[in-house]
Design goal:
The chain is 6% helix and 51% strand. The protein is mainly beta. The strands form ten sheets. Strands 2-9-8-5-6 form a five-stranded mixed β-sheet, with no helix packed on it.
Length: 474
């Protein structure tokens, strides 16, 4: 019996010894991944609509191809380190057009070994900057479709079709004009069923269609203009749309919904022609049928012929306003330079009006020489620095000196002028002229203005726009 016990113990020890040799652990080297930093700093700066390109440097501890690796790029809101993130790419290298709201984001990159599921990450803060802080907004059309181009002169950036790129949809068809509202919007008027759009001045993101800004959509949609009260007036914040020569005021609905839209037109036989002048105490329009200034009472929502305390009966002025634009605002009023037409004498006049308090005063009123082709003028813009009105006839650009009535031809572009705009920037006078290169193609010409009203060409921006309809300096 003892012999059997000894034999059993010896066999068991031999079995254990053999088993240990067969079950020794085999260690296999794991492929470790590392990703180099994307930037020497902790932040990458990018502009809206810029194409962000990143080609990461990836290292593996085992010398092998990247066939077994997978890649993903995540984008988080600032301070959002957990929760849902936007997956913006699954490619090794990032090529991403920035269409984000300006602000700070966290960009994270993850590389995974598909065999072992081992992964590595690299991240960097992404600061998206607004390229639209200042520049020239160009409303243009291609095959009747409205488009927006933008030129940032400080950054030397030119962007075409910015609205379509950011919103994914078109503005509309048959564009008419663009204006900037008191409440940080662009209103773009189109001759179509929706009437155009309201969009943000920050980045052109759509806020609503034109017709959706009305509590009751006008039966006849014929947008003449937008304007708001003098920023220094007691009525500041009050703004209006002139549609079919009738005025619509914007205000909330007085209910808990807080909708802020334009109401039905003021009930009046008077009509507004799209021109306005504002003092600290008054908001005025002009009626080309009545041939006089109209007082817009924004408290009682009515119109009346303006009764002036000044030296002229402005409510019965007797002329047709061809062009009127406020050159500058003062604490008490404003200066306005206008072009009027007198049907009785068949003459045109360059007129300067100063408004103060409840009154308006005639500062200058000069007959414009008939040889100046003023009767055929199609586009106007005022200098906000000097006493000049620029206007175009065909391919030619003219300037009116409103302190003398003198008219001079200052440029001939050889092609039809579609729009003009003026800007005083960094103590430099700028005149922008849009000329036609074909049915759906235009060029923006940047001119330097001189103190005597003459201009000199600085730069041409080609292949950027279609036929230009309107321009606005932001």
């Amino acid at each position: 019996m003892k012999l059997l016990k000894y034999i059993y113990v010896i066999c068991l020890m031999a079995f254990i010894s053999c088993s240990d040799e067969e079950t020794k652990t085999v260690f296999k080297e794991i492929n470790e991944i590392s990703i180099a930093q994307f930037s020497e700093t902790d932040e990458i700066e990018a502009l809206i609509l810029e194409q962000l390109e990143i080609e990461p440097v990836i290292e593996q501890s085992i010398d092998k191809t990247e066939d077994d690796l997978s890649f993903v790029w995540f984008l988080f809101q600032k301070d959002q380190t957990i929760g849902k993130a936007d997956t913006i790419s699954r490619d090794r290298n990032l090529s991403y057009q920035i269409s984000l709201v300006p602000g700070t984001y966290l960009l994270k990159y993850r590389v995974t070994d598909n065999n072992t599921k081992v992964f590595a990450e690299q991240e960097v803060m992404l600061e998206v900057q607004n390229i639209y802080t200042s520049g020239l907004v160009v409303l243009n059309e291609v095959s009747n479709e409205a488009r927006i181009a933008f030129i940032n002169f400080n950054l030397n950036e030119q962007l075409k079709d910015v609205y379509l790129t950011l919103n994914g949809t078109a503005i509309g068809t048959n564009p008419k004009w663009i204006s900037q509202t008191y409440y940080g919007e662009f209103v773009i008027a189109c001759n179509d069923d929706n009437g155009g759009v309201f969009c943000s001045t920050d980045d052109f993101r759509k806020e609503s269609s034109f017709v959706d800004k009305f509590f009751e959509v006008p039966i006849v949609l014929n947008q003449n203009a937008y304007f708001s009260a003098n920023p220094s007036s007691f009525a500041r914040g009050t703004d209006f749309i002139i549609n079919n020569n009738k005025i619509h005021k914007r205000k909330d609905d007085g209910r808990s919904t807080g909708e802020f839209k334009f109401y039905s037109a003021f009930e009046s036989d008077l009509e507004l022609s799209g021109f306005s002048v504002m003092t600290r105490y008054l908001t005025l329009g002009y009626d080309n049928n009545h041939k006089g200034f109209i007082h817009i009472n924004s408290n009682s929502d009515n119109l009346s012929v303006f009764r002036s305390y000044g030296d002229v009966d402005w409510g019965n002025y007797g002329r047709i306003m061809v062009h009127g634009e406020t050159n500058k605002y003062t604490h008490a009023g404003s200066y306005m330079a206008c072009v009027f037409y007198d049907e009785a004498t068949d003459k045109y006049y360059a007129t300067e009006i100063e408004s103060e308090g409840y009154s308006m005063f005639l500062r200058n009123d000069y007959e414009i020489d008939a040889t100046s082709n003023i009767a055929d003028a199609t586009h106007f813009t005022n200098s906000t620095r000097d006493a000049f009105i620029y206007y175009s006839v065909g391919s030619k650009l003219y300037v009116i000196v409103t302190t003398s009535g003198e008219v001079r031809e200052v440029a001939d572009f050889g092609k039809n002028i579609d729009a003009i705009a003026f800007e005083y920037r960094d103590e430099i006078r700028k005149v922008y002229v849009a000329i036609s290169d074909g049915p759906d193609k235009g060029t923006i010409v940047e001119l330097n203005g001189n103190q005597n009203g003459t201009v000199e060409e600085e730069t041409r921006y080609e292949n950027l726009v279609g036929r230009v309809v309107d321009m606005l300096v932001k």
